[in-house]
Amino acid sequence: MLGARVPNTVLRVEKHPGPRTYDFPSGIYFWRDRVGLYGIEIAEQAVGDGRECFPAKDELGNADRAFRSTQGKPELLVSRPAQQIQIVACLRWLCEFNILPCIPQQQPVSYEDLSQLALVPEGHLRRVCRMLISAKFLEETASTHVGHTALSYAFVNNFALSDGLAFLTETIVPASLKMVEASKSFDKADRSPYSAAFGTSTSFTDQALPHGRLSRQFDHFMRCIANDTGNGLLSILRRLNINGDKEALAVDVSCTSLTIVRTLAVLHPRLSFVAQFAKEPPPTDGKALPESLAPRIQCLLQSNPEKQPIRNASTYILFLQSIDTNDAAVSRKVLNCIKAHADILRCNSDAKLVILAATSPAAEVDWHKHMAHMCRFQLSHDVPLDRLELRGILDEALRNIPGLCLAGMTVSENGDFCIYEIASIGLA
């Protein structure tokens, strides 16, 4: 369920013989009774009417509780998603016809007036609204009038929520339903669930880049569903030992951004860096790099990824951020990189090649990461690698290149990043 922060408001709790009102700080909350999740409210703590009330982030972050509650009731695995699908479909309908901005914030409006204003059939409008009223997203003050809740009004003030919802219904849902077709054609590099859904050989990445609307919707959608602060990458880079923090040179190979070298430059003030860009490097002005870091970072265009002209570095880093192609392309990239640095590693006692990879999360980590991972997989856009598959690729590459071995491996706490260090056999 999409969420948003909303202004301070009240939680209205229905308890016979009549409603009670409680004042609480802001936040979006779900309420549930003994059976399961039933509605959405605004509050900050549990209320004493027999229903638990807890934050949306806590409920979503503990979705496994809802799953465990289906034990012995397998039909709930169908009925609950069906309910959510209908809620999302109805909410998308309201957003498409701009219904929510037509409802005054503080007073209800009749279905008749609202249908005439939005130019939609009144019967359709009433059915859609009542589905959302049953989920506590809207409220019906009389059988003929509908009004806002604080949650529904959040969609009026926050356009990013409508953007995220549009991307979910128009792009993610069609792509997610084509995973079977994509798996049947797994040997084709351009056959992703996204391409199967939309009948195109163009990747989502190439589709989104020239179209600002699609790219914007994707960013807003990922912000809605992901619970990622970027701490995983920072924590794994903190554990990377580069020449014992002595003065040295580190090279970021085939990079697409300054993220890695910029982070490492902050962590290791005595190191210098070269960022070798596969495509045109960005300008190294104050916008790309802070003044304190710019003197220690040099950006170059990598003319030939199969040859490494810089031979005096202590550490060479290849960041495998995603697989926008098939596994064979990843294997070639890793193999070419190891070959390009093989002689340097054999001859330089201080040198090592670091394969840093974003990997698919471990089974026990927060479900947000798994959902974000599946969405990226369905789009074939910035998809983390499978750690076991990557290890197999590295083992195969090292079998074909004499004199080198896997000298070390580090995995982040959540399993979302890993580091493989490759060095000379005699020096490992």
TrEMBL record:
SUPFAM superfamilies for this protein: Winged helix' DNA-binding domain (SSF46785)
Protein name stated in the entry: Uncharacterized protein
Q: Which domain of life is it from?
A: Eukaryota
**Residue ranges of coiled coil:** none
What organism does the UniProt record list as the source?
Lojkania enalia
